[in-house]
Amino acid sequence: xRKHSWLIVVLLxxxxxxxxxxxxxxxxxxxxxxxxLSLPTRTLGPxxxxxxxxxxxxxxxxxxxxxDTPTPTLTSIPATATATTTLTxxxxxxxxxxxxxxxxxxxxxxxxxxxxxSVPPGTPLGxxxxxxxxxxxxxxKVAYADEDGEVQFxxxxxxxxxxxxxxxxxLLATPPSTQPSTPxxxxxxxxxxxxxxxxxxxxxxCQQKNVRPDQPTTxxxxxxxxxWFVALxxxxxxxxxxxxxxxxxxxxLLDDWEPYATEVRVEAGVWIVYWFYPVGKLSAGExxxxxxxxxxxxxxxxxxxxGPGTSIESNQGNCTFNVVEP
Length: 326
Prior knowledge:
Blueprint: H1 2-22, E1 93-97, E2 103-106, E3 115-119, E4 124-132, E5 138-145, E6 151-157, E7 161-163, H2 165-169, E8 199-203, E9 221-230, H3 233-242, E10 243-249, E11 252-253, E12 265-267, E13 270-280, E14 285-295, E15 299-300, E16 305-306, E17 314-323
Parallel strand pairs: 8-9
Antiparallel strand pairs: 1-4, 1-7, 2-3, 4-5, 5-6, 9-13, 10-11, 10-14, 12-13, 14-17, 15-16
């Protein structure tokens, strides 16, 4: 509104100035015609100029610069720590040998390992561990100090040691296997013949045992059988080291009988070894087996004494059987 008022004032001033110029003042009468009249000129009043009002300078708008979107990083989830089993050392437990005679300590957990030393009943031992052999028999690993104080780490059949080792370390006795026996081996690891069809076994001393022998045919494979059992496995070693078997079929010696032994087995609470000597197919008719057992040195089976200087220096028997046509 003020701007319009100023414009009106300016227009009015311009109009007033124009009127004054057009209305001249007459020359005074009687003045010389030749005189040049000087007409005053109007000085225009100052034109009011307007100082333009301050106009607001637009504030530049802020252009938002897009920020970098951070790339998500894969944060690895720490794996759950798996508890590490810490093996607790098996403590040494005291033990003592309980036997009626010397007991063998061996280089390994089994009767087929080398005998390192024989020790008397009552010998103290440090029991370190236990292991079961292929016949499911338990053997203790023991520390034995000899007369010089030297300690040896050996193995002994568990039944010969009185100790609370199992109770101390929380072990239970391993139950015997109920599965059929695998093909047998002798104490040297020799495999006995695998049972085959038409196999017939004849006990070498069937007469003394009051056993009626089978009647094989000429097509059967015949095996002569005998065995030895002991009350303790250590006693079996004594027998095997000193035994001499003389078994004859129809007068012919069955030599080289050692490879036909089985492993030591546990049956009805005793330890037993069998021999099955193959004689093949026999002719029809009567056949006789003669059996004789002697020992180089006296031994015991845990029930009696056998061999030189004892009341039983030899063991003898026989069996007669018939072979028929099929």
